[in-house]
Amino acid sequence: MPFTPFHFGPGALVHAVAPRHVSFVAFCAANVAIDVEPLVWMLRGEPPLHRFAHSFVGALAVALATVVLVLAATRLAGVLGLPESWRGSGLTAKRVAIGALLGTVSHVVLDSVMHADIRPLAPWSDANPFLRVVTLDVLHGACVVAGLVGIALAGVQRLRSESARGERSARSGRDAGRVPR
Length: 181
Known about the structure:
The structure is a single chain. This protein is an all-alpha fold. The chain has one domain. It contains seven helices and no strands. It is globular and about 70 Å long.
């Protein structure tokens, strides 16, 4: 699925389930980074399009590069002119690493289902055990559903967080007028 947002759906769901452990930014960045490979081979007109980066070994290398780049971007956010949300954003190395690794590994699995030129187990095997395990419609549908569920869960979490914040604020306002005994 080169250059499609379908890969982001599973990332939205994983982030919504474990927001303190998975960086959605790193997940998405890793999915974009891994697809630089087929872009290069497309532009050069040299198949196969999916090579090293679309193996699990290559996915690890892309994930490591993504971690370095995302962490560097957070540290240089002001200099790079990135939005305020990147500064002090809580993007820890662990969250970024988990997001990037989940992003690249899931990318390889999802692309392996639909692209015959992918060798996810290289260099040990040229086999692609994921090829056509489900139809393209099922694959895309599952990614969309995962994204919608992830967005819904994130929305519920945000509402709960805002509600809890409002209750704490109201309580502290009431407590401010009390005289301690």
